[in-house]
Amino acid sequence: MSRYAAAHASPQGAGDSRPTALQIVKDEGMEGKLKGKVIVITGTSSGIGIETARALSTTGATLYLTARNVIKAKAALADILEPSLTEFIELDLESFDSVRTAARTILAKTDKVNILINNAGIMAVPDLQFTKDGHELQFGTNHLSHFLLFQLLKPALLAASTAEFHSRVVNVSSSAHRLNGINESDNYDFQKGGYNAWVSYGQSKTANIYMASEIERRYGSRGLHATSLHPGGIATGLSKYIPEAEIVAMLENETLIKTLKSPEQGAATTVWAAIGKEWENKGGKYLANCAETNSGNDDGNISGTDYVSHTYNAESEARLWEDSLKIVGLTDDQ
Question: Is there a catalytic annotation at residue 210?
């Protein structure tokens, strides 16, 4: 059982006794212990990305922090980061070219990456929109661009892995993946119609889980591990597409309000996956509340933290991997 199980048993709202990201670093005894290590984090200009970077900066690692708006990210983190150990990289996840440029920039500065945290994302885009490369916006932003970034940084992740410190990939997914799995190979972009904001988001978050599980299957034996996670319900800019009436209704739900986390708490499971001793030499699991999740019902409840029947599916994971390689224009070099 997780050491944090009791803290999560009866939540009382943001700022309650549930752990923060910084508490995880302290509890794991990792303050100042990652000097010389390299961590890459996407989406560090807002929300839990800021708090993930804030907490991991205390480990002494060198941080490569990506954001579409670098000025915003620098302003958000100016007070807590060591300039000599921090690099800000422009990355627009709506563009494969931007992903490639960001990866080149990182690899020009380091040939080893110890931890990659795919944190950035968008949620519940109300109408069918597309990335600069012509892919459905949520699937392209949340999955395809992170998949491409991983592939480009993969040699550095493998090169960094040692017997003492295996490399890790952490994909921030969501309980919204419980809504549905992934579409058929010829319908990832809803070419056949039927676009729905939450179905699309659910697909992209399932894809985050499948990617992590497949990384573990393919590269775990080579010292590169991956996990995925649900960070919890957090009031951040991620909810900007949700209609105001829906938000008002949520805020009137006292039970729901009690489950909400602060951004500092919302980053805790990410940090636990990234540096926790529990995940030193293994992965391939979907996490929530600083614990491995349990099997739950296929009820479509996006507030549930358990995994469902499609959360783990080796056949779909492999299919998505191969399809994603083709989409981003790469071949696998296992």
Answer: no
Considering the candidates 37, 205, 261, 285, report the single residue annotated as catalytic.
Answer: 205
Q: Does the active-site annotation cover 188?
A: no
Domains, the chain, ordered by start: 5-328 (3.40.50.720)
Long-range CB pairs of 315-321 (<8 Å, 24+ gap) are 316/181, 316/182, 316/210, 317/210, 317/211, 317/213, 317/214, 317/217, 318/214, 319/185, 320/182, 320/207, 320/210, 320/211, 320/214, 321/210, 321/211, 321/214, 321/218
DSSP three-state, residue 73: helix
HSE, CB side, 13 Å, CA atoms: give it for residue 232: 32
Active site residue 205: yes
Is a pLDDT exceeding 70 seen at residue 334? no
pTM for the complete prediction?
A: 0.97
